[in-house]
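Batch manifest, entry 17 of 40.
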Amino acid sequence: MLGSKREVADASITMAEGGNRGGDLTANLSARLKQTKGEGGQLLNNTQFLKETGQFGWVETDARSAHVKLWTKYDTTKQGRVALVKAVTTVDCSSLETLAFMMMVRGRTALRAGEENGELARVIESETTRHDVRWAVVRREPFPLSTREYANRSVAYLDDITGHLMIATAPLPMTNIDYGSGRLFRFGRVVRGQMCSLIRIKSKGIHNTQCTVTLIRSWVPGGRAPSSVVLARLPTIVGDMIIARETCQRDEEIDRESLDKTVATFVRKGERKYDEEEEGIIARAIHVGEDFDKQQKYKTLESPNPLVRMSAHSSGREFGAVTILDEEVEKCAARGVNFASREDSTLAFEKGEFSRACWRASKNNDHSFYRRVVRPSRVPGVRPFEILGKMVWKWVDADTLVVAFRSGVLKDYPESRAFVRPSILSLSKFERLPPVSGVPQTRFTHAIQADFKLSALTSPLFLKRLLVDQLMSVCEARDYFDQSVKIEMASRAALRDELRIRAKYSAEQTEILKRGATAFGLFERARGKTTKVLGPPSVSQELLFTSDSSLAWGRSIGLVAADKEDLIAYVWDTEARSRWTRSHEKRAILEKKSAHHHVGYEKWTGTGKMRPREAVFDAVRKKITSKTWLVVHTETEHEKCWFSASCVRAKVSRGYIIKEIKPRLCRLTYTSRVDVGGKVSSGAMNATLKKDLLFVFKTQTFFQNLKKLEDWGEADGSAVGLQLIALEKGSKAAHVRATFRENAGLKEVGGKLAFFEGMVQAVIENKLRPAKVVKTRLADLSLQDGRKIGQSLAASIASNLTADAAVDEWVVSYPGLRELEAEYVWLRPMAVAIANRILESVSWGIKSRLYLGAFFSTADLITDVNTIWYYIASGNTAAASFLIISVGLCIWGQLLVTWLQTHKGPREEMAKEMLIVLTGSKPAVDARRVARNDEKPAYAIVDTSTELTLTRVVEMVFETGPSCVLQVHSLLTMPWTAEQKFPTSLVLSLAVSCVTAGFTAAVISFDYDVSPRRRRNAPNLYGYIPDSSGSRAAIFVSMTLFSAFTVLVRSFGVAFMLRIVLSLFVSCFSRLIGKMVSDFVGVIQFRVAVEVGGAYWSWNFVVTIASTIVAARVFKSRDLEEGEFNPPDVFFTAVWVASAASLAAFLGILLLMKSKYRGSFLSIETGAQSVQNSFIFSDSDEAKHAIFSRQKRLWAPIRGEVQAWVHLNWQEWEAYKPEWFTDAWKLSLPDDIVPSSARTKLARMKYGVRKSDRMRANRNSLVDMVLGGSVASVASQASQASMASMVSTASIVPEEDVAHMLNSDLSQRDSAKGIELVQRSGGRGGGGGGGGGAVQPVIK
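Output type: structure tokens
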């Protein structure tokens, strides 16, 4: 963006100088025009017809930009019948700068935009001066148009009559343009088109900081182009004007100046003269507002914003909305009057509006305006609405300002059949209210009386949608002026002071606490069946079903980045705006009984035939320990809210436990049970409960929004990514804008980087498009660049198996993103979190690859079975028996993998998995699990992705390889006589087996190389696959073909040798499985030193090709025995073709891969050298730690260095806990490597603890928090609130296991805080509720 503006500034200086420093612009341009009087005059004559196009016949068209007005038409001129386009826009720079920019036909911005629009070439034939340019462009047109070539001459001049700057462009005579060598190959068939244009640049204002650009352009595409196609393409030929506007735009600055000017107008409350028409408009509009205030026969509409109340009259002709805005009356009204601001116009354009405009009705007054809006009706079969009329504002009293609008007819806008003109009378009333916490308040009422001229048969559903759409401006104003955070901060500050007061609890309050904490005990003791609930990765959600009710209890646990006092205040504040949801109609406190006890009230709107719901509840909070607080909501009744026939009484039962983990980090445990009352099924209530459990995630989001950018880390990036992708319904673009507005960190980044919001919006939209090339550096990235970069992530997600790999490909493809990642550590975690959620919901890219592999595996099995049947039918029982053994070994291998995965789990699960193997559906089931991103069961050894890879390797080793050899051998040994039919089924089976093996080998190599973790840990081995999506797809296809043809060549070679020397068993079993896979299939992954090595891999490939060709020649030239026939020549031709194709695919891989990795195919490095070098030359601990996954003999020579590295860094790892520093990794270390200070602890972890210690730990993990005051009450009534089931992680990043238990010494720590542990038994203290051996803390 900065580069484009510098380009404009430099060109404007050159244009102004005209070759002579200090020269006058007008004189230079006039002199230049006189010098070119002949040619220039002729060019002006050629474009003169554009001035005579007239004012009629133009059709308003979508310009694909909110700030450009566009009209098109077909007309007959002196040049013949041509397509015409007229466009008008405002450019935020001087007229000279605009002229300079639009004359730069070979500028960087013009070249980049041309590449995006399909231009194949853009050259300057000659340039006499900057005022006179001959240029040409070749543009690829969409089907059915051929590629077009345009050769033009552009001359800039000064109009002597009007004084405006002009640019005239006319086609050059038929001349050959030199585009460089290879034109025919690059362009193909080219048709010469003609384009004439006349551009007028008129300065605006006395400071010449803006100008109005008007363009009239004719287009004769040439050839045989249908008129409908030409008209559809007309909006694309004004791209230079749109680019000029976007490059120089100062939208925020212009909007701010306009708003300040309007506010200043409102502040001047002097006498204003209103004519009779204006007074009539205001009086009628006020009457509409009074009817709306009465709310007679009005029904509530479902509002997108819970703080905006919408309602409509039963007739459907009167409707309105009311809300409270957090700003002064003048500013609120100014935004309403400036409804055509650039920001609002952009938002409206994204929603589908064609245009909106507002201009003063008279220069003599500042209180009346004309306005015009063209927007889609959103009703099927109804034309777009054109809302045209007059708007008047007036101060009714000192604190109330009204804005009235009445539709009418304007002579400049005759009625068109393309639009419907509804009759509208509306009132916007702004009333000043007392400030709240120092924030000004304004009541905004918007009432409308309208006749949309719809059919009587219009569906009520579409009518409601239309009414809500007309009232969306109220919701936009509510969001725009929202200062809820500032208001609630003041409220939370007062609550923080109350928390320091030591409270006394009555018996009633203690009983409320006990009832509210019941759910914690139910989850602690697992009194029922629990079910996990899928939700955001940063929280753990589950349902518990008890035997006494069909309604479930729900629990949600997560970490919140906030002080415990702020979190308690947020949970406690029933009236807080941030606690409202879309279904809330009211939230209030009916009575405040004490600082720690109040009676709350909530009301929810009804949906469909369901009546509204309301709930009355007691809210009580209590401090359990110095770091733990409990808040409960239990149902109750109150005299201010008796049962009403209009509402159904719901029952509320909620519990909150806030536990401080460390400063500014708390763990929130939330339990709830939903009983909405009435005749609603338990299934519907439990479904509502799942939505209610998102409270913890919404709390995380609320406090994340308050965090400043300078405090962000990787965990914050993940949290913000989840927030951006967590859209329940509505527009994704609107959700991203709202998030950027509410989140302090994103708002700061968006202010610094103009492209960032557009990039994130394109990422969230996730529309699959080809990846665009953007080589611009970070400082010069524009909004368009950001959108192109964001759109490219979808292609990366579609072509990669994991989110990490997709984001890694995306980041390394763009220099600007690499710079941005170096500056902000949270960028990659944010992108990974978004990509993960996209993969969970729209993982068709992964699914297509996985299911394609499953299809090949299943097809291979089916064709093998068919081949067995063919052998049996033809009497070849030996081949059938061998193939049966091969398939049986494959199934046995899959059963072995299944047993290893499930032998530690339930027997039923093992039987189920083995049945899947026996039915032949194992590949498809594994692919489905990986596509759904299923979690690894606790008893499993490896994850689902690794299990899928193992299954495919088993299939490749035991079935695909032997099957290919057998089938080639069978084809060679068949009696090839004239009567012998060609065995199509055998050839098809062979082809499927080869493709299956090739696809599996390519997937293994591809996934290993693109893994970001492997690329970081071993950059010398992994990273040969290019970073762009197109190159990755090409190299994947090349690897698949290479492996498939290698299998075919090897099969022919082994089959020929088998016929010659009968060496089948020697060929199949002389190698280990890994080497066998490398030799037979050609998996590129096995070229690494720890497998077979690069030099040997390449030598083996060469030997494979050569030996197969030699074996084929020997086989063909052998002496035939009596009755023996050679197979047809097509088989020998197939050997040559397969060998050549395999070699060509390998060369393709070498050409496509990164050049520095080509030498790895000739590497003679041993496995030991590779392991030692990876440790010695690696800079990161994450890469070094992988050495312990290798055999000890490989790194024995550097054992001392490894030991010193561990001893030196152990304390730092214990303090910062890297992701790889797990208990499993610690236990894998040899004893002499571990520091002596940590050996005792690791020995206990390794060899376990005494049985009595484990039993004591289990008992201590079941402690119950007592909420009453004495030991006797503890023995009789045990509280059920438990802390044992809370999450013990210490970050917000998504965790695989969120349900860690607290340490067993919790009770000992709490006893030091004033908690006395009393042993509970069944026969002492009145029974006290079961469970001998459990202990209870008593708060003193």
